[in-house]
Amino acid sequence: MDVGLIASNILSPPVLFFFLGMLAVFLKSDLEIPQPLPKLFSLYLLLAIGFKGGSELVKSGVSQEVVLTLLAAIMMACIVPIYTFFILKVKLDLYNAAAIAATYGSISAVTFITAGSFLNELGIDFSGYMVAALALMESPAIIVGLLLVKLFAIDKQDGDFSWSEVLREAFLNSSVFLLVGSLVIGALTGEKGWKLEEPFTQEIFYGVLTFFLLDMGLVAAARIKDLGKTGPFLISFSILTPLVNAAIGILLAKLIGMPQGNALLFSVLCASASYIAVPAAMRLTLPEANPSLYVTAALALTFPFNIIVGIPLYLYGIEMLWR
Q1: What pLDDT does residue 237 have?
Q2: pLDDT bracket for residue 161 (50, 70, 90)
C-alpha cells in the first residue's frame, strides 16, 4: 500500500485539526468549543452536502448505475445490523447488541465528507448523487435494530415500545430531515439554485468542516478512556467491522460498475458508523442500552480509524481491483 495516501489524508487541515482537538484533551488544555456551535456546524454540513447532492443528482440524471447504487446502499443499511447483531450477541445483552448493530448499519456523514475532501485533493472525480445514498442509509439501520429487539426480546413487555416514536425518530430526526430536505431543495432548484447558494454552501465548506473536526477531536479524546471498560471484544469489533463492510462495499461497487471515486465513497459509507442520528434514536427508544458503548466505539475508535487508515486503505483496494 502507498503510505503516501495515508500521509496525504493525515496531513489535510481538517484531519490535523481533529488531532489538535485530541491533543488538547490529553494535555489538559482549557480549549473548548461553545456548545451551540458544534450543533450549528453539524447542521451546516448536512445542509451543504444535501443541497449539493440534490443539484448533482439533477445534473447526472437517473441512470442504471444511480438506481443500482441507491438499492445497494439500502441493502447494506439493512444487512449490516443483522449480521453484526448476532456477532455482538455472543458477548453482549440484547439491547446493547441491537444498539451497536444499528450504529454500524448507519453511516457517518463527517467520514463521508472527509473522504470527499480526500478525493478532491487527489483530483479523483465522484458523483454528487452519492449524497442520496448517504441520506438513504441513515434510517433503515435504526428500524432494523429495533425490529431485532422486538423479535428477540424474551419478555414481550421488555420489547414494548412505541412504533410511532421509532418511525418518527428514524425519519424525522433533525439530521435525516435536514439532509433529505436539502437534497430535495437542491434537486428542485438545480443549477440556478446552486449558483445562488454557492458562496454559502461551497466557499466556506472546508472551514466549517475543519472547525467541526476540531470539536470531534475534543469529544473523541474525552471518551477514549471509556474504551478500557469495553474490553478487547468491542475494540476488535470496532476495527474489524469497518474492514469487512468496506470489502463488501468495494465488491458491490465493482459489480455495479461504479467509477473509483464513487466506489470509495460507497465503501466509506458501508464502513462508517453513526454517532449522531442512531445514538439519538437509541437513547429515546432503547434506554436499556449503554450509550458509552455504542457512542464510544463509533466515535473514539471507528471514526479515527476510518479517517486515518481506512480511507486510504479502501482507495488502495479499489485501485488494485479496478486495474
Answers
A1: 95
A2: low
91-127 burial, b at 16+ Cβ within 10 Å, e below that, comes to ebebbbbbbbbbbbbbbbbbbbbbbbbbbeeeebebb
Cβ atoms of residues 320 and 2 within 8 Å? no
Give the C-alpha separation, 52 to 47, whole Å: 8
Domains defined for the chain, CATH in brackets? 3-26+33-322 (1.20.1530.20)
Round to whole Å and give the CA distance between 323 and 320.
Answer: 6
- Give the span between the Cα atoms of 158 and 173, in whole angstroms: 24
pTM for the whole thing? 0.79
Core vs surface per residue 37-69: b (16+ CB within 10 A) or e? ebeebbebbbbbbbbbbbbbbbeeeeeebbebb
Structure-block grid coordinates of residue 203: 466557499
Q: Encode pLDDT of 69-96 as tens digits.
A: 999 999 999 999 999 999 999 988 898 8
pLDDT tens column, 7-16 = 666 677 877 8
